[in-house]
């Protein structure tokens, strides 16, 4: 089978499309014929060797955590799923023609494989950071870097829970944020004053790692009310870095429920082929994403 792999840590140029042996579903796992794989920042952070504690990596290694596809092997002990079912979920080495998933759910009706591949890690992260930052219904959450996949999910989950969201993004994404129910403003000079004009901030999330931790602490008045998934230096300022995943099955179940109720939609900004994986990583690292990027298989 074809699979994207890397034999050394480094930039996008270390990615190779290779011929590899097919993986197989062990106990408690399923294998899918991959139709699409989600492109996440964790993919290129692992490729660079940034976060090896959370994601131990033995070289050569495959790439990717999220995928959607058609079940073609069911491991021992797995119930409620059959060969031929359409699923989305999380596993390993998902930039490939076949991948083994450790967590999955049936795809909601009307969702395409391309769309479904973008939800698993994004929803797990969104639900985790909302929980960990401690924001409650009736309060206001500031999201820095709100237009990407996790930000798009946070905005919609928060709206469903009665939490007001102020989102920062580039000029081109202001209407997009407003369409997701956020109070939107641009980053750049004067952004703190613009946020204050929109209202009091009870908690804040840094999703982009753009060096705004001090400002978020200033806006909330307390480093314990700020959480980041992107700035590894944040703990030096007393701000928590969230990098340990929660329950992916729970996240998939909530995603399916919200999608079915018409409360969640994350658009796919751009799709790539397996041979274009390096370009997908380059674009992901550049930021300014509106929604999700996926690799089509």
UniProtKB/TrEMBL annotation:
Subcellular location field: Cytoplasm
Keyword Transmembrane: no
Assigned keywords, A-Z: Cytoplasm, NADP, RNA-binding
Name this polypeptide is given: NADP-dependent oxidoreductase
GO-annotated molecular function: oxidoreductase activity; RNA binding; zinc ion binding
Any Pfam family the entry gives: ADH_N
UniProt-listed SMART domains: PKS_ER
Enoyl reductase (ER) domain location: 10-295
Assembly and binders: Homotetramer.
Superkingdom assignment: Bacteria
GO cellular component terms attached to this protein's record: cytoplasm
SUPFAM superfamilies reported for this sequence: GroES-like (SSF50129), NAD(P)-binding Rossmann-fold domains (SSF51735)
UniProt xrefs under Gene3D superfamilies: Medium-chain alcohol dehydrogenases, catalytic domain, NAD(P)-binding Rossmann-like Domain
């Amino acid at each position: 089978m074809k699979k994207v792999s890397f034999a050394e840590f480094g930039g996008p140029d270390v990615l190779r499309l290779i011929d590899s042996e097919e993986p197989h579903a062990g106990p408690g796992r399923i294998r899918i014929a991959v139709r699409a794989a989600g492109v996440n920042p964790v993919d290129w952070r692992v490729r660079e060797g940034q976060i090896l504690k959370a994601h131990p990596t033995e070289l050569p290694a495959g790439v990717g955590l999220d995928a959607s596809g058609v079940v073609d092997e069911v491991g021992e002990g797995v119930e409620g799923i059959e060969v031929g079912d359409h699923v989305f979920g999380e596993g390993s080495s998902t930039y490939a023609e076949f991948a083994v998933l450790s967590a999955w759910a049936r795809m909601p009706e009307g969702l395409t494989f391309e769309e479904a591949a973008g939800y698993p890690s994004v929803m797990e992260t969104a639900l985790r950071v909302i929980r960990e930052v401690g924001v409650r219904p009736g309060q206001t959450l500031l999201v820095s870097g709100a237009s990407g996949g996790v930000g798009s999910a946070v905005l919609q989950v928060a709206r469903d829970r009665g939490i007001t969201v102020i989102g920062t993004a580039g000029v081109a994404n202001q209407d997009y944020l407003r369409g997701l129910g956020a109070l939107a403003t641009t980053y750049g000079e004067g952004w703190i004053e613009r946020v204050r004009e929109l209202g009091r901030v009870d908690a804040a999330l840094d999703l982009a790692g753009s060096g705004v931790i001090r400002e978020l602490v200033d806006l909330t008045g307390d480093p314990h009310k700020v959480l980041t998934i992107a700035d590894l230096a944040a703990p030096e300022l007393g701000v928590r870095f969230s990098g340990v995943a929660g329950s992916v099955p729970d996240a998939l179940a909530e995603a399916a429920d919200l999608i079915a109720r018409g409360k969640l939609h994350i658009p796919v900004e751009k799709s790539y082929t397996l041979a274009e994986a390096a370009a997908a990583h380059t674009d992901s690292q550049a930021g300014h994403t509106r929604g999700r990027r996926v690799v089509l298989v």
